[in-house]
Amino acid sequence: QVHLVESGGGLVQAGGSLRLSCAASGIIFSINGMGWYRQAPGKQRELVATISRSGITNYANSVKDRFIISRDNAKKTVYLQMNSLKPEDTAVYYCKVLGYDFWGQGTQVTVSS
φ, ψ for residue 21 (rounded to 5)? Predict the structure, then answer.
């Protein structure tokens, strides 16, 4: 059974940083692409960043040059380093196994102005 557990969310002031983690189990982590998504109140869930099994990354324009996605295959963990945070980054952040409907429970990120 696939299990994804996000952590690292919290309350931060605008301009601050947070690092999210997503620990995976029940999958062969190294062969799967992973993604981070977010959902703000009243809005649809949107893609934030993806990383392929070979480490190729892709970002939404809204977070490019501020967020960095990375992975540690030995730890079966994907990370999202979020810098220069803005109030509009406030959302619940989810990780996902690309190509499959496997999601974590989400972690809340709140950025105060």
Answer: -125, 150
Q: Give the residue carrying structure tokens 């940083």.
A: 17
* pLDDT tens by residue, the chain, 113 residues: 889 999 999 999 999 999 999 999 988 877 889 999 999 999 999 999 999 999 999 999 999 999 999 999 999 999 999 999 999 999 999 999 999 998 989 999 999 99
As a whole number of angstroms, the distance between CA 17 and CA 73 comes to: 24
Spatial distance between the Cα atoms of 2 and 99, rounded to a whole number of angstroms: 13
| Integer CA distances (angstroms), 97 to 42, 63, 92, in order | 24, 20, 17
Q: Across-strand partners of 23?
A: 5, 77
Q: What are the angstrom distances between the C-alpha of 90 and each of 75, 94, 109?
A: 27, 13, 5
- Residue 85 region, left (φ>0) first, then alpha (ψ -120 to 50), else beta? beta
